Description:
The complex is a heterodimer of chains A (487) and B (548).
Chain A: H1 4-16, H2 23-39, H3 41-52, H4 56-82, E1 85-86, E2 96-104, E3 107-111, H5 119-130, E4 134-138, H6 144-157, E5 163-165, H7 170-178, E6 183-187, H8 190-202, E7 207-210, E8 216-219, H9 225-240, E9 253-257, H10 258-276, H11 292-303, H12 305-308, E10 311-313, E11 317-318, E12 323-324, E13 327-330, H13 337-340, E14 347-353, H14 358-364, E15 371-375, H15 379-388, E16 393-396, E17 417-418, H16 423-429, E18 431-439, H17 454-464, H18 468-476
Parallel strand pairs in A: 3-4, 3-6, 4-5, 6-7, 8-9, 8-15, 9-14, 13-14, 15-16
Antiparallel strand pairs in A: 1-2, 2-18, 7-17, 10-13, 11-12
Chain B: E1 4-5, E2 23-24, H1 60-63, H2 71-86, H3 93-109, H4 111-122, H5 126-152, E3 155-157, E4 166-174, E5 177-181, H6 189-200, E6 204-208, H7 214-227, E7 233-235, H8 240-247, E8 253-257, H9 260-272, E9 277-280, E10 286-289, H10 295-304, E11 320-324, H11 328-343, H12 359-370, H13 372-375, E12 378-380, E13 384-385, E14 390-391, E15 394-397, H14 404-407, E16 414-420, H15 424-431, E17 438-442, H16 446-455, E18 460-463, E19 484-485, H17 491-496, E20 498-506, H18 521-531, H19 535-547
Parallel strand pairs in B: 1-2, 5-6, 5-8, 6-7, 8-9, 10-11, 10-17, 11-16, 15-16, 17-18
Antiparallel strand pairs in B: 3-4, 4-20, 9-19, 12-15, 13-14
Helix pairs in contact in B: 2-8, 3-5, 3-6, 4-5, 4-7, 5-6, 10-11, 18-19
Amino acid sequence: MEDLEGELGAMREYHDGGNTRDASWRRAQLRGLLLLLLENQAEIFSALQQDLGKHPAEAYRDEIGSAVKSINYALHHLKGWMSNKKAKLPAVALLTTAAIIPEPLGLVLIISSWNFPIGLSIESLIGVISAGNSVVLKPSELAPTCSSFLARKMPLYLDTKAVRVIEGGPAIGEQLLLQRWDKIFFTGSTRVGRIVMTAAAKHLTPVTLELGGKCPAIVDTLSSSWDKKAAVERILGAKFSACAGQACIGIDYILVEQKFCSALVELMRVNLKTMFGENPKQSRSIARIVNRHHFQRLKSLLDDPKIRGSVVHGGFMDEDDLFIEPTILVDPPLESAIMEDEIFGPLLPIITLNKIEDSIRFLKSRPKPLSIYAFTKDESLQRRILSETSSGSVVFNDALIQYLADALPFGGVGGSGIGKYHGKFSFDEFSHQKAVAWRSFLVDFWFRFPPWNGYKLQLFQNFYEYDYIGIVLTVLGIGKQRAIHLS
Amino acid sequence: MNGVYCNSLEGFRPISGGGRRLIFRCPFTDKSKLPLLPAPASCPTISLCLCSASTSAVHPVMADNKDVFDTREASLLVRELRSIFKSGRTKSYDWRISQLKGIERMMEEREKDIVEALHLDLSRPELESIIAEISGLKSASKKAMKELKKWMMSEKVKTSMTTYPSSAEIVPEPLGVVLIISTWNYPFLLSLDPVIGAIAAGNTVVLKPSEVAPATSSLLAKLLDEYLDNSAIRVIEGAVPEATALLEQKWDKILYTGSARVGRIVMAAAARHLTPVILELGGKCPAIVDSNVKLEVCARRIIAGKWAANCGQACISIDYIITTKIFASKLIDALKQALEESFGENPMESKDMSRIVNLFHFKRLVGLLDEDQVTDKIVLGGQRDEKLLKIAPTVLLDVPEDSQIMQEEIFGPLLPILTVETLEESFELINSRQKPLAAYLFTNDEQMKKKFVQNVYAGGMAINDAIIHVTVPGLPFGGVGESGMGAYHGKFSFDAFSHKKGVLYRGFEGDSSLRYPPYTQKKQTLMKALLNGNIIGIILALIKWYGK
């Protein structure tokens, strides 16, 4: 690490040499990423199996497949993203053209997280590379197999002078944060997010913080059995089958009307059995808790007898296997840790309300989550949720899939994060939008320059108000003249 | 290194470096009473010194001996505004329009007061005030009113096969309670321009104008109270203690205009509450001048971009010029002539140029000129008058790179000209320094223009002119690197104070069990095809799947 500064210096020099600016370089790197994923699928599956017990199908859906889709999307749109955007000008700005030109920021640091160690690393890299930056990726040390996979394999597919992987834990992270970056992209907890932003302030480095929060799912009293089944499948899928609830956009808890609660729980029981069988521990379809520390944390959430008493399904745990059974709780006390902290695990509290509309007040009194999910066909409720609550994103009648929508910005607001990415938003997040105006020497409004007088003053007023007739009148000397107040 | 200067005006001494605006502690502020920002362990700067007060005009509010606005009051203020925000009243289109109209009306009706305040604070010529501040604000509020409906509309976006069937839109929503800390050089424009954006986006706002332009600060407090909804839009006047109290609160966005040094403090304070920031800082904005230009026009535009812009006290004014060795003397002659045309034989007597804001800045600028290795480089101007706080337009030729004038942002009427053998060298010269807020090029060489735009890093650029790029409503205004982060103006202001909420609508139909466990090999194949948008793959997989 002593020569970290030297290494970064070399990277900066390489970047300043313009090596990463060409579209061809960016394309080559994106293709490299694609090959990295496609040629090493088996190894990625086994790394994710080892670090998190993820089933290959889940691994493909959440990490490889979604990243491949995003790379293809970036390759397809890169040219459009890189092109200048002409800015409109008023007619008085004769012989001037203006455009917004995206330029790379420089050297970017990505600090990635352990829950989707491949998917989230690649997704952010796509934006960084598309925008023509150089980058250091620090994968999470809590998913060590995936981290070492990235460190070993990425250099084989990407330009090592501009894309580097540095492995390590908090000490390395701290060292990296001391350096000067042109952008820091961080995925992780709110606590570390604050540390990252504070460190970034020293070098005036802009940050993108992808944090989390408690994402609620409002479940309306659905009537048709088809709707109920679809909603329950989607809820369970979004809770238990995405890294066993260890996902920043996973459903944290459910809000439901009292009268619909027991029917909902019953339906969940049935569907859980279909998904994970009689003995979920034997099922290969559910991921494991990442490590003992988190296992203990989750276990302690349930330790309180009051909480224990609210468990209506599941609750089985096996520390040696780091397995926690999909667990459903009804009405745990609101001032308990499980309802105050982000759960990040396969525990699903259900909070009952008198009326589903009460959910809006409930959410307004809490920090802004990364996502709000609402399963309802009631359009007026949909509208109220949209306009009265605030969250990174809102999804109606489904969960998690907003992650796959390239045309939507992905990112939080308030406590759930700063900045946004995915698709074009990634490109923009890692670019500076340079404003450029071109002028010719031919035409000049002589009234732009001192010495000043009332005549020039009038012309300026016409000019700013785009009052073309006024300009002509003033120039001809028949417009109203202004008096100068001072001097 | 420029930076922080302490207490007494006679014996100001630099404490630390970085940044453009002059910072020194108000003489009447007791240091021991300063509430300290809990600075992060790694951040060397502890106390927040935002700006100075001039000796000539003591801040009216401070002079009133009012109760100090402390942390407790700040937190009450934020709580109050937050409850107003939560009531939803600032979200409505009507409220936003009524406030924007208020600003427009204020600019129409109180033009005279504004011009006077700016004259008091900066001896700003009336016309300059009208061009640079009042007209700019009028057109900004007009544009916002005209386009607000469009800006507020949610944007439908296409969804892909992956999430089929669904529809999606991006809904802009207000962030909540925002803090705008403004500065003294264009005290009206730089206060109200961001306020327009914050209002248009439906937020509640606290504005802290700069105490260094006291007349404008108190006028802003008065006018905003009179013309705008003061339950949602507030002005807090004051200096360091007030700013510190404000920065301790949780905001939903902070926009700060000022120095890079204070920008760091603002961002570190914001980090504690995870508040996103827009920092509008400065930097040394270069102008490259080629020998093939129409000299007369070029010189006039340089004057407009330097001395006619608040006497060089503007964050996007030209800081220094780079030209070829051979061409320098011609350029100087042209500048000399154009300066005479603009400001007369004796520029010290001209009423067409602003003065230096206060004695402190005056002394700083004189200090730059009086440095040993710099004094003999003056080729034009150099006169100064401490009583009037005036410095003549001054041009310097080939000052050494390590002189103070080439180290810090000049922010005044001094213009160094650096010479190079070939102009291509200038790109490297600019890129070897911190990224400036703006970079300018005067040339008729198309190739050169292209290279400049492509290779020089800067917040914004104008070719064959200076400053005017910020008047283009379709362009974002903002820095990069040391010159700031985030951008505003026009629609960009609206976006800067909005959250873009991604919204996805799904029905309950069109679901396939392949998304859910138990996972099988078949599901994996189908998923692969689906995520790749490969229609044939999907069909094949489906046939195979159902075939089994």
